[in-house]
Amino acid sequence: MAKNINTFVTTVAFVGQPNVGKSTLLNAMVGTKIAPTTRKPQTTRRIIRGIKTVGQYQQIYFDTPGVLRKKTGLDHFMYGEINRALADVQQVVLIVDAKAPIKKYYSFLNQIKSTVQLNKQVLILVINKIDELKDKSQLLELLAAYAKEVPHAEIIPISAIKGDGLKELFEALNKNAQVSPFYFDRDYFTDATEKEIVAELIREKAMLELKEELPYKLAVTIEQFDESRRQDKDKPLIAIEAVLHVEQKSQKAIVIGKQGASIKTIGIRARKDIEHLLHCQVMLKLFVRVEPHWTTSPKSLRKLGY
């Protein structure tokens, strides 16, 4: 008779200021793209959970927004998402950029250290983007500097985009995993629905395509997700209709672009990622709708899923 084999589970929040690579790390850990990634702040707006199961271990990651301000209802929603993630996990991975001066993170480091201590959580500090360091001796200086700031945390240098250090991070998180049945089946890599991921991928492509300020005034909802031909043996197809919501008519014109050039480019780029996610051909139609002052209106925020 086979012996029972214990399984281990841990929940982990990825936290950090904008552009440190939280979503890139999430995608790298689960092995597929589920979170949007751009160099623009506020790309991530809500918690996105990723799941990695290897052998007896399952890790559940909470990707969180990186927020700099508290000006709008959307900003407050994002701060709430960070706080919810920190309250729900066993371990916290604090991510910093290897190229940024450590003093940039002093305030945030102290805030996270206090939260972790209060919640009796495990703290791991990740130094990301080490591949971008021109002088590798800088890494030793960074390790020493951060060791003084977070003396009780394990510090792991990584390159999320190249995959360096991810095995070490996975093993470090396993040290504090708890004996538990798996929360999800082995083949799960997220608990987000396909529609939720699709909306985020479309928003990512719009952020990459549009002018600097407009992406922060943009939201995406899925109006139709027709799977009636998904199992077609000859030509599997999913028909998707999505709406890009902006606050002003002038913004709508920018999203559409001259002779529809911008919206066409967004659609082409988004469809490529969506087809990779869904493993079939996708017919994607994009529309633009004005939702006045949605980032500050509680009613509009709820309507758009915030």
Q: Could you characterize the architecture of this molecule?
A:
The protein is an alpha/beta fold. The chain folds into two domains: 172 residues, P-loop containing nucleotide triphosphate hydrolases (Rossmann fold), CATH 3.40.50.300; 110 residues, K homology (KH) domain (GMP Synthetase, Chain A, domain 3), CATH 3.30.300.20. Helices cover 36% and strands 24% of the residues. The chain contains nine helices and ten strands. Strands 1, 2, 3, 4, 5, 6 and 7 form a seven-stranded mixed sheet that branches. Helix 3 links the parallel strand 4 and strand 5. Helix 6 runs antiparallel to helix 8. It starts with 7 loop residues before the first strand and ends with a helix. The mean pLDDT is 92.
